[in-house]
Amino acid sequence: MSELRWEPPAGGSGDESGRRAVTPERLNDSGGPSRWSITLLVFVMIGAAFALGIGVMRVIDASDDYGRILRSSGRDGAAPAAVPAAVQPSDDDGQEATADTPGRASRFAILDEIVEVLDKDFVDPSKFNSLDTREAAINGIIDALDDPHTVFIDAERYRMASEDIGGSFEGIGATVNQVDGAIVIVRPFRNSPAMQAGIRPGDVILEVDGESTEGWSLEQAVAVIRGPKGTDVALLVRHTDGEEELIVVTRDRIVVPSVESLPITDRSGNPVADIGYILITQFTEDTRGELLELLESARNAGLTQLIIDVRGNPGGLLDATVETTGEFMDEGVVLRQIDREGNERVFSDEPGGAGVGLELVVLINEHSASGSEVMAAALRDHGRAVLIGTTTTGKGTVNVPRRLSDGSVLYVSIARYLTPENAPVEGVGIAPDIEIAIPDTGFEAGQDIQLFVAIDYLRGEYQPGSADSGSTESEPQNVEQEEAPAEQQDSQSEGSAGPQSDSEE
Predict the structure, then answer these.
(1) What is the distance between the alpha carbons of residues 264 and 492, in angstroms, rounded to a whole number?
(2) How, if at all, do strands 252-255 and 259-261 pair?
(3) How far is CA 124 from each of CA 118, 121, 129, rounded to the nearest angstrom?
(4) CB–CB of 84/66 below 8 Å?
(5) Residue 159 to residues 142, 154, 256, 339, 403: CA-CA distances in angstroms?
(6) CB-based contacts of 109: which residues, under 8 Å, 6+ apart?
(7) Of 377, 307, 367, 369, nearest to 347 (Cα)?
(8) Backbone φ, ψ for residue 308 (5° rounding)
(9) Is-above-0.70 flag for pTM?
């Protein structure tokens, strides 16, 4: 883009190139200026000032933000704002200013002016004094992007996010999510302080230590609810039946394996020994290794069918997701990633896998996000699994942490991902093959209807419409089960404050 410059004449005499010279007319021999020459000189000066004003305005127009500021400040008789340094001509031949140049830095000098004015004049000084103006300005820029996955977190919250991926942290022991602006408990961990204190799935956290959570981000909630082992946190929650209760939880050290094999029962209450069940809570560096151990145990037990539960799984590390999913595929595309330039990067699985010979059902729900959506979509698209449950979150964005100079981190959305069959995920989610909704009190009553349908399906006993009332079902897609090879090959939680995952406390 061209840049307008105004440069004064190099010398005080002589004609300027491209400009008409106006010489005052002398009417007598005295050499002194006449009345008409003085009048003419005044008009020349006025004309020069006017021309200079037009030149300044055109330079300002080259910087849209400050052009608008200056133009709007002169309306309704108000005095125009001071011209910021950003509109001054530069010597970079039109190259875009960087954050290190005075021009770019001064683009935000107006924020300092605003802070000074508010600090001096705002009618409610207590409200302004309690405001973190720095973070408010940062969040204002990010909010304008209208991307819920690009977020700023301070150094402490980033440390907590790193702990999550490590699989342990100090907190109450529950997974949380943000639903319609509210902070909601997805599930308390088994035998965790949260469960022992009476926290239930679906609880909405209204207050933390007497402070309302209205307007809080998920990261902010995690940062406040977490804390050192042995300390208490008071949570005002609204249960799914509408009852509000103040629950005090004593924090502890929470160790969270990302993969668990748990005993299950069918709808008659009988233990299930012919079908394996694996719960994947998130995708960490240890997930694939933990999965391989459980798959070996299933193989040794002679199991040929497996239920993979990723309900409430917030995602996690992309590489871990691809590697874990690949254990159930015998080569193929796991996901497609499209960057800002429209370039495609394909993540594919290597041949073989410890779980390629198993018949699979994957349980999903509205809290399955990111990595869990990648796994579900890939296994479905390759005909490896039937999906049972409800439509997933729809978090189809790849985020990377960019560490800033003060130790804080900006998680930036750098790409969208698509399913192997090129279907979008962001804002859409992954729909189940068999849609089953669990009533609000289903888990509390021990009625995991989605799990029951999964068991019935694998046993060949599933009948559409036979589930409990309140559920809706659709016919599953045809799944062509791969033949087991002769020799099978071995091969984020209150934790994640980053946008790749929900969070755990």
Answers:
(1) 26
(2) unpaired
(3) 9, 9, 9
(4) yes
(5) 21, 9, 17, 27, 12
(6) 84, 85
(7) 377
(8) -105, 120
(9) no
Which of the residues 395, 491, 493, 502 is marked catalytic?
A: 395
Q: Which two tokens stand for residue 132?
A: 């973190």
120 a catalytic residue: no
| Catalytic one of 258, 261, 370, 496 | 370
Q: Please identify which of the residues 252, 381, 433, 448 carries the catalytic annotation.
A: 381
Taking the C-alpha atoms of residue 277 and residue 275, their distance in angstroms, rounded to an integer, is: 7
Beta bridge partners of 100: none
Q: Using one digit for the tens of pLDDT, what is the confidence trace for 198-237?
A: 999 889 999 999 999 998 888 788 888 988 999 999 999 9
Asked about 370 being catalytic, the answer comes back as yes
Angle, in degrees to the nearest 10, between helices 218-225 and 155-166: 80
Q: For the chain, which domains are there?
A: 35-106 (no CATH), 168-255 (2.30.42.10), 259-483 (3.90.226.10)
Q: E strands, 382-499, where?
A: 385-389, 397-403, 409-418, 434-435
